[in-house]
Amino acid sequence: MKHVEHHTGGDDILSRTAKETDVRAGTRVSRAGSSRIAAGEGGPGGKTRARVAVTSAASARDHARSVVRESWDAPGRRASEEAVIDLLLVVSELVTNAIRHGGGIAGFEVDPTPEGLRLRVHDYSDVVPADAHGPGTLPPVHVGNGYGWPLVIRLARDIAIERRPEGGKTISALVPLAGPR
Predict the structure, then answer these.
(1) Which residues pair with residue 169 across a beta bridge?
(2) Which residues have CB under 8 Å from 141's CB, separation 6+?
(3) What tens digit of pLDDT does each residue of 79-97 get?
(4) φ and ψ at 157, to 5 degrees?
(5) Is the dihedral of CA 127, 163, 33, 146 positive or negative?
(6) Cα separation of the two ends of the chain
(7) Which end of the chain has fewer CB atoms within 10 angstroms, the N or the C?
(8) What angle do CA 117, 120, 121 make, to 5 degrees?
(9) How many CB atoms lie within 10 A of CB 88?
(10) Residues 138, 148: Cα–Cα separation, whole Å
(11) What's the pTM?
């Protein structure tokens, strides 16, 4: 199952840094955030999944949950409730960050893999989150924020941040649904 709507370009991985990094990369594109699986690749029996507008963390969670049910769960393979909760936490964090800090959602993709779901969240900002590639440690004292990226780092793997040729960035992460948790 291969997702056909792909918004990223190139293999230009952004530098890892402890500071925020500005990676200017061109102009913006339409703000219509969506995810789509093409005909014959959608779900069981080759069902086509309609285009889904993702404009909030709630709609992104709903879409990711439906991909688990329709495209990942199969006879003999089912995502545990704990794995789905982890997935939904990562989806919420990445989409909320795109909205709050990334200038909005430029696109959202969910691709089933043998290990779990690959998420791609596209936004309009060239700024890399300060702790994007940190060790995943939580803030030492409660400061009201700063917990999201450590959760993403702890719950996901293969996290990458790439420039978009039209400006902004794509953050992708694989959230495991199979195997020991």
Answers:
(1) 123, 163
(2) none
(3) 999 999 999 999 999 999 9
(4) -140, 175
(5) negative
(6) 24
(7) C
(8) 135
(9) 19
(10) 9
(11) 0.71
